[in-house]
Design a protein that fits this description.
It is a single chain. By secondary structure, the chain is mostly helical. It has helices spanning about 5-25, 25-45, 50-55, 60-95, 95-100, 110-135, 145-175, 175-185, 185-190, 210, 215-230, 235-260. Helix 4 packs antiparallel against helix 6, helix 4 packs parallel to helix 7 and helix 4 (about 60-95) runs antiparallel to helix 8. The model has no long low-confidence stretch (mean pLDDT about 85).
C-alpha cells in the first residue's frame, strides 16, 4: 500500500471517528451554535430599529441591519464552532488515546487531519444553519451572481480551515479540556470587536485600529461585498492573506507539538 493510500485510508477512519463523537455528544456543538443564533435574534428584534437607524443615517429600516449583520455572524459561527475542536483535541491529548495511536501502524498525520476535516465540515453545516435562520428573518442577497456566491462559500471554507488549525494548536498545548475552551475564547471575542455589529467609523478613534487590524474585519467586509455588492477594496487581499497566514501558523504549530516525544 502506497504512503498516499495509507494516509487517505487512515484519515478517513479518523474523520469518521470524530464525526461519530460529534453525533453522540452533540451538546457542545449545539451550545456553540446557539451563541451566534441568539445574537442574531437579539440584535435584530431587540436592537434592530435603533441599530438600523444608526448605520443608515436615520433612513434605514430593520431589513438593512439584517443585511449588515448576517455576514459577520456567519464568520462568528465559524469561530464559535472551532472552540469545540480545541476541546476535542485536548481530550485526545490528555486521555491517552494519542499515546495508543502512536503505537499503532497508522499514518502519523491522520489523527490531526481527521480533526481538521471534521471541524471544517461541522463549521460549514453550522454556517448553513445560521444562514437559514438569517434568511428566515429577512436576509436577502438578490444581487449576488453565482460566481460571487461560490467566492463567498470559498472564503467561508478557507476561514474555517484557518481557524480550525489554530484551534487544534490551542487544544494540543492545553493541559485539559477546560483550559482548551478558555484558550480558544478569542475566536468568539474577536468578532465582537470587529465590524460585525457596527461600522468601524462609528467606533471611538482610539479603538478603530483594534477593530480594523484583525482577521475577522477584512473577511467580514469581503463577505459583505460578495453577498451585498458593497465595496470590497483591499479587504479581499487582506482576508486571503490572514487565512493563509493563520493556516500556515496553525499547521506548523500543531505538527510541531504533535511530533514531540511524549514525556
Amino acid at each position: 500500500m502506497s504512503t498516499l493510500t495509507l494516509a487517505v485510508r487512515d484519515t478517513t477512519t479518523m474523520l469518521r471517528r470524530n464525526l461519530l463523537h460529534a453525533r453522540r455528544y452533540p451538546s457542545m456543538t449545539l451550545n456553540l451554535l446557539l451563541t451566534p443564533i441568539m445574537l442574531l435574534l437579539l440584535f435584530v428584534y431587540i436592537f434592530g430599529d435603533v441599530m438600523s437607524a444608526g448605520i443608515g443615517g436615520g433612513g434605514a429600516d430593520r431589513s438593512d441591519y439584517i443585511a449588515y449583520l448576517v455576514p459577520g455572524l456567519l464568520l462568528m459561527t465559524i469561530g464559535s464552532t472551532t472552540i469545540g475542536t480545541a476541546v476535542s483535541v485536548s481530550n485526545d491529548m490528555t486521555e491517552g488515546i494519542i499515546a495508543r495511536f502512536r503505537t499503532m501502524a497508522i499514518h502519523r498525520g491522520s489523527v490531526i487531519t481527521g480533526h481538521v476535516i471534521g471541524s471544517v465540515l461541522q463549521s460549514v453545516v453550522s454556517v448553513v444553519l445560521v444562514g437559514a435562520v438569517g434568511a428566515a428573518i429577512g436576509f436577502r442577497s438578490t444581487d449576488a451572481t453565482a460566481l460571487e456566491w461560490l467566492a463567498a462559500l470559498g472564503l467561508l471554507a478557507l476561514f474555517a480551515l484557518a481557524l480550525t488549525w489554530i484551534a487544534v494548536g490551542m487544544g494540543m498545548v492545553s493541559p485539559n479540556a477546560e483550559a482548551a475552551g478558555n484558550n480558544a475564547m478569542p475566536l468568539i471575542f474577536l468578532p465582537l470587536i470587529s465590524s460585525t455589529f457596527v461600522p468601524i467609523d462609528a467606533m471611538p478613534g482610539w479603538f478603530q485600529p483594534i477593530a480594523e487590524y484583525q482577521p475577522f474585519t477584512p473577511a467580514i467586509e469581503t463577505l459583505r461585498g460578495l453577498l451585498l455588492g458593497t465595496e470590497i477594496g483591499h479587504n479581499g487581499w487582506l482576508a486571503l492573506a490572514w487565512c493563509l497566514a493563520l493556516t500556515a501558523l496553525g499547521y506548523f504549530w500543531s505538527k510541531s507539538v504533535y511530533n514531540r516525544d511524549p514525556k
